[in-house]
Amino acid sequence: MPGLYIGSTSGYSGKNMIVMGLGLYFQKAGVSLGYMKPVGAIPVEVDGCLGDEDAFFLQEVLGVSNPAKVVTPVVVTHDFKVQAFNGRCEDHVEPIVQAYEKISADKDLTLVAGSGSMYSGKYCGVDGVHLVKTLGIKCIVIDRFQKELNYDYLVVLKETLGDNMIGVILNDIPPTFMDEITSLIKPFLERKGVKVLGVIPKDSLMGTIKVCDLAEHLGGKIISAHSKKDQPVESFLIGTMQVENFMTHFRKHRNSAVIVGGDRSDVQLVALEGECPCLVLTGNLYPNDIILTRSEVLGTPIIVVRDDTFSVAKKMEDILSRHKLREPAKIKHGVELVESHIDFAFIKNELGLKY
Questions:
Q1: According to the 3-state scheme, what is the secondary structure of the chain?
Q2: Superfamily of chain region 209-322
């Protein structure tokens, strides 16, 4: 039975969204679906069974069920890495092959979710390139736009995987880059034999995080406007500049959380009056009563964190680029994005599916 590996050029490229979109689409078409994530990078224990956090979640979304040790035969814990780097690495590929055979035995299609990039896990022989070849299955590679695309990487993967690689999905593409994709990048890739299966545009909802989740990830505390803790945050600004310069910059980025020192009440007030989604005050410094009152009146939550402004900004950058797909609204929207931008007919034909 056909299998399809979903890999990427880097971590946090949108593999879960693509797996959900593909899986739910094929299930609606009447395809009997299997799912596995052979290498788990986020160890978590559920009901006494060690598995991967994303794998548990994806099984729930897709409505499939297999034991954790079958779905994710290799779970990368600290001890696992220590043994591997010390040369005491077992053969982890054979358990993956056995698990794949078990899951795919009575299915029309089995989706195999990658972890990290296509070369992640090479230190212990379980990288995506090796697994695709060993399992003899097809592969789709996601490349997420992060300042630029990894077109060289995609060409090398096609040369390495040959007919096993169906094509690529270009994800999170900003509007300003769409013309270049259409006129330059896509024609180049396809001349190199790399089929572009879809171009998914950057989407504001998919890149947001709730204020309450942001506070948790930053290790901070919401101290005001608690009723607005579910407000979405799209991006952030750092308020270290003079207030006049900050005002000019802030007008262009009104949906941004503002990271500012707890002692900068001038910038805090400008941000509040400008209706930013939340304030993040650094240095474990609490605002004065005027700022607290305006925060409550305007419904703008304030998060107080211990770290300095630079450290918080770095964390924010990581959080906004890696925030997981967990909320029902995001799942639904992500699936719709996949369904409306992917060439399913080509994929079905390559997999030999007649549905």
A1: CCEEEEEECCCCCCHHHHHHHHHHHHHHCCCCEEEECCEECCEEEECCEEEEHHHHHHHHHHCCCCCHHHHCCEECCHHHHHHHHCCCCCCCHHHHHHHHHHHHCCCCEEEEECCCCCCCCHHHCCCHHHHHHHHCCEEEEEEECECECCHHHHHHHHHHHHHHEEEEEEEEECHHHHHHHHHHHHHHHHHCCCCEEEEEECCCCCCCEEHHHHHHHHCCEEEECHHHCCCEECEEEECCCCHHHHHHHHCCCCCEEEEEECCCHHHHHHHHHCCCCCEEEECCCCCCHHHHHHHHHHCCCEEECCCCHHHHHHHHHHHHHHCCCCCHHHHHHHHHHHHHHECHHHHHHHHCCCC
A2: HprK N-terminal domain-like (3.40.1390.20)
Residue 322 burial by CB count (10 A; 0-12/13-18/19+): exposed, middle or buried?
exposed
Q: In this predicted model, what pLDDT tens digit does every residue of 32-87 receive, in sequence order?
A: 999 999 999 999 999 889 999 999 999 999 999 999 999 999 999 999 999 888 88
CATH annotation of 3-204+324-351: 3.40.50.300
Domain boundaries, given as residue ranges, for the chain: 3-204+324-351, 209-322
265-306 tens-digit pLDDT: 988 998 898 888 999 999 999 999 999 999 999 999 999 999
Q: Which residues of the chain have pLDDT under 70?
A: 89, 241-242, 244-245, 247-254, 323-324
Extract the tokens encoding 79.
Answer: 């001890």
For residue 316, the model assigns a pLDDT of 87
Q: Is 279 exposed, middle or buried (0-12, 13-18, 19+ CB in 10 A)?
A: buried
